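Appendix B. One record, verbatim.
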Amino acid sequence: MTSRSLSPFDRLLSDVQRALETVHGAPPAQRANPAADVPDVVLDEPERRHAAGLMRINHVGEVCAQALYMGQAAVARDPGTREHLLDAAQEETDHLAWCADRLVELDSRPSLLNPVWYAGSYAIGVLAGLRGDGWNLGFVVETERQVEAHIDHHLDTLPAADARSRAILQVMKADEARHADHAESAGARRLPAPVPGVMAAASNLMKAVAYRV
């Protein structure tokens, strides 16, 4: 049986469905939750709120990653680049599901601004992709390196007893590093100096807002 080639309209519908699932649904993970066998403990209220704020930031980060990759893939010129982006997006779906599970366990919720985060990140992904596949992959590298750095910070500031969140973040960090390494080996170009700084400033704003809202 031959597979049907998707038209631009088919791809648009697929992207819309993916966006709705990411923002409003609960896309299933393909891999087991790294915290599945880690005993849970009862955190005191300030610790619970802090852990929930950090995991909400990470959940928003995965919403943004989904949108970035889907926006970049929508305009990628090389099929290999597009496949790389979609493969990375699938692993980010695992992260999204794991963070959502942990938020429920912490008696909390995702960010109320997820539709805004998704729309903005998708637009940025399209703009990055239109610059060409080398810049497209360079954007992946810089994004993943910055995500690694903020996960490191969260690992340092999580409540010591919150081993379940820690187990999730450790696997996420390893995945992000692998995505960056793969993008570099696929021909990523180094982004011009102002761009990483702008990306970091936008990320810091997102984290400050998502921690609470």
